[in-house]
Amino acid sequence: MLKPQRIDDLTPAQRREIISRSSEDVSQVQDQVRAEVEAVRQRGDEYILEHYAKYKPDINPADLVAGPGEIKAAYAALSGRGLEALKRVRDNIVRFHQAQKERAMWTVENEPGVLLGRMTTAVEAAGCYAPGGTAFYPSSVLMTIIPARVAGVDKVVVVTPPKQGMAANPATLIAADLCGADLVIKVGGPWAVAALAFGTETIPRVDKIVGPGNKYVTAAKLIVFGQVDIDSPAGPSEALILADGTANPRHTALDLLSQIEHDPDAGAVLVASSAELAGAVAAEVDRLKPGLQRREQIEAALRHTHILVARDLDQAVEFTNDYAAEHLQIVTADPWAVLPRIRHAGSIFLGPYAPVPVGDYASGTNHVLPTGRMARIFSGLSVDDFLKKPTFQYLSREGLLSLKEDILTLAEIEGLPLHAQAVRARFED
Predict the structure, then answer these.
(1) pTM exceeds 0.70 for this model
(2) Is there a contact between 249 and 284 (Cβ–Cβ < 8 Å)?
(3) Beta-carbon count within 10 A of 429 CB
(4) Topology at the third CATH level for domain 236-379
(5) Do residues 76 and 83 lie in contact, with contact meaning Cβ atoms separated by under 8 Å?
(6) Which of 36, 238, 284, 326 does the annotation list as catalytic?
(7) What are the pLDDT digits (tens) for 370-379?
(8) How high is the pLDDT of residue 379?
(9) Cβ count near 50 (within 10 Å)
(10) Which of 66, 241, 246, 358 could form a disulfide with 184 if both were Cys (CB 3.0 to 4.6 A apart)?
(11) End-to-end Cα spacing for the chain
């Protein structure tokens, strides 16, 4: 049984263990993945085909691409209700991400004759990784393609691990088609990441790779970073619930358990300002466990699951910010009053009717989020991730004259005489 612990009673080591939690340790596979990435860089399609010959002995480059026939057949494999759900969710995600778009260009006259500005331009090509090995998530396909499309990315390539016979998951194909992917490549793991980073005869090179994956995918993304851009490194899913005595114990217990059904390494934490709520939730978790379908997986993940009692809401908020959760639920009498006090979280869910699955699937916010305290430095995937924002400036003669002496002085201090001469020359005639 989960036993509530008071935050004040935690030793420094216990607190560090809870805060550090489970993370995706890629160090043990780094060398292996680096070798695979280099092989793809050197040999391209040939090496990928050798790997996937186990799925289709007579494999050829055309088998790496999901063609129109396979996509058409995928639609026949999905129920009408499933298709309608994907379409509605797609539209919600589109609307939310369209609202993120900023002005394409702005300018400011810093001094008379000195016009400065910034413009926005999208990367040319993006690669979206769609899991498809032990699990598949068509919702993640929507979450990665849509912000790229809204940003204005010219080419979107989806990569996904195939099954026997080099067949892709039908729901993945449909989600990619509904969002307007240009190409679906049936390659996964580090081979897909390397192919997107360097390009092969069949698979085009991209500028940015996004989307969730296992430790081999994460390791490959870290290896190719610099050759291409990537989103934040992803680890096991996690959630923190900040609650007071108004929260429903059964709902809170289900919220904790639903988060850790993802993965044996997933984690969940309840930080309650009410000892009564903490005790009731612990009892409810214990009552629910025997009837759970994924009980073995959940039992494993409970080692990363904790119920903590804060002396008051202030301490609960302080711990919440220190934890920097991927998903944060705020279930208090006035969650809007708590929201401005949150500094670090991937995505925030307010009130008793906003459980995490709402954001995972349907509301429109993105569920590709930073894990393992990365919320302290990263945000969730958004339109901004696919944009570059170069600055520009235009100076009149009078504008340059107004800055001339400052430039000459700083060039002298830094010992760069040609910097000074480039400016001085414009006033010699």
Answers:
(1) yes
(2) yes
(3) 4
(4) Rossmann fold (3.40.50)
(5) no
(6) 326
(7) 999 999 999 9
(8) 94
(9) 12
(10) 66
(11) 85
Joined tokens for residue 241: 């619930």
Q: Is 415 helix (H, G, I), strand (E, B) or coil?
A: coil
The string of pLDDT tens digits covering residues 310-351 is 999 999 999 999 999 999 999 999 999 999 999 999 999 999
CATH of 30-230, one of 3.40.50.1980, 3.30.70.20, 3.60.15.10, 3.30.420.10: 3.40.50.1980
According to the model, what pLDDT value does residue 81 have?
Answer: 92
Q: What is the mean pLDDT of residues 245-274?
A: 93
Task: Let me know if 367 is a catalytic residue.
Answer: no
- The two beta strands, 121-122 and 238-243, are unpaired
pLDDT digits (tens, 9 = 90+) for 120-167: 999 999 999 998 876 788 999 999 999 999 999 999 999 999 999 999
Whether 251 is a known active-site residue: answer: no
The single residue listed with the structure tokens 């929260």 is: 247
| Residue tagged active-site, from 327, 367, 405, 419 | 327
Q: CB burial class (10 A; 0-12, 13-18, 19+) of residue 27?
A: exposed
Same topology between domain 30-230 and domain 236-379: yes
Q: Token pair 């919440």 is at which residue?
A: 320
